Amino acid sequence: MTKEIGKIFYIGMLKDNPVYRQILGICSALAVTNLMINSLFMSLGLIFVASFSSLTVSMIRQHIPRHIRMMVQTLIISAYVIIVDIILRAYFPSMSIALGPYVGLIITNCIIMGRCESFAQNNKPLASFFDGMAAGLGYMTVLLTVAFFREFLGFGTIFGIAVVGDWWTNWIFMIMPPGAFFMLGILIWVANSFIPTKEQDKEIEIKPIDINKASQETVVPGGAN
User: Fold this and answer.
1) What is the full DSSP assignment across 104-155?
2) Residue 48: beta bridge partners?
3) What is the pLDDT of residues 170-219, one digit of tens each?
4) Which run of H or of E encompasses 86?
5) Surface-to-core class of residue 120, CB atoms within 10 Å of its CB (0-12 exposed, 13-18 middle, 19+ buried)
6) How far apart are alpha carbons 177 and 37 in whole angstroms?
7) How far apart are CA 57 and CA 76, in angstroms?
8) Beta-carbon contacts of residue 51 (< 8 Å; ≥ 6 apart)
9) Residues near 24 by Cβ (< 8 Å), separated by ≥ 6?
10) In the beta sheet, which residues pair with residue 158?
11) Region class of 160: left (phi > 0), else alpha (psi between -120 and 50), else beta
12) pLDDT of residue 168 exceeding 90
């Protein structure tokens, strides 16, 4: 079981990272990564929703009619997103304001829906819980990495703490939307350069066909007329 869980985390966080490899969830990855603290809270919220949504879907998968399973999954995801939103409003009001509508948009995040449909719908609860967590952690690594470079270059801070002196010139470009696209594009390129693709995992040897030899071996049914 430990090996299976380790494999789930390896696939979810590295080999099949939802952002680097599947290019999913980039809306929030671009919108909230100007500060690391915003990215951290957004990531924690998504990890919670992805983990418990996958767990719930897996637990009741035998009782969900196939033709309405997507609607049921969306309702389950919505319930957990509402919990996250209530907690933020009650205990972290400033963060709730900073994240704005992007907390609610977790409902339509393709990462969560994808894990519920492709994994939780066909696997046991515990494995589904860790699969959702792995996908969320993979998402978190991307958000925090993008936010690290954007906040450091754009503000000269890390988690709001100044790490450079007054001599530092802020890169205004990095805290603007084009800076998010630029930074995410570079990270996706770097990640895909080091993480092997599915095609590289299974190299298929294609042998050339000798046309002359093939024509000589062809037999015409019934003989020549």
Assistant:
1) GGGGG-HHHHHHHHHTGGGS-HHHHHHHHHHHHHHHHHHHHHHHHHHHHHHH
2) none
3) 888 888 888 888 888 888 888 878 766 555 544 434 344 444 554 454 44
4) helix 69-91
5) buried
6) 18
7) 8
8) 129, 130, 132, 133, 136
9) 18, 109, 110, 111, 114
10) 161
11) left
12) no
pTM above 0.90, yes or no: no
Q: Are 132 and 9 in contact (CB under 8 A)?
A: no
Answer yes or no: are the C-beta atoms of 28 and 102 closer than 8 Å.
yes
CB atoms within 10 A of CB 140: 19
The answer to whether 125 and 59 have CB atoms below 8 angstroms apart is yes
The alpha carbon of residue 126 and the mean position of all alpha carbons in its chain are separated, in whole angstroms, by 20
Instruction: Tell me if residue 157 falls in helix, strand or coil.
Output: strand
Tokens at residue 2, please?
């430990």
> Angle at CA 125, nearest 5°, toward 122 and 128?
65
Residues in the chain: 225
